[in-house]
Amino acid sequence: MSEKTREHLFNFWGLLDELLNLVLFGLIGLEIIALSLQLHIVWLGLAAIPVVLLARGISVAVPLLALQNFRRLNPHSATIMTWGGLRGGISIALALSLPEFPGREMLIGVTYLVVVFSLLIQATTLGKLVKHLNGLSAKR
Length: 140
Hints:
Structural class: mainly alpha
Number of strands: 0
Strand content: under 5%
Shape: globular
């Protein structure tokens, strides 16, 4: 494959990715308009955030501990990978694709709140966290 063909191919798939994300988040927006976020769903969503972060932390730390004997790792790798494990469109798309059942609306609402936290808080503070942890490492 020539370099020009490769460039066109990457541009095509990049554009398709952007268009599908646009459609997905448009559907998410329409669903959220129809979704009634009741107070108990908000509380469940807020309670789910630390649970999701803990699960992510465990799923990152265990393999990193296993790799520790084979590779030299940054001591803050698990923290950065846990906080940087952003959730987004796939999570909401999976929740929206579930068939109708009691509790579906609650599951979608909780998923939406976790994703919003991930995108608004985790994504915007990841760079600051990395700088802070690098500063801690430099002081050692």
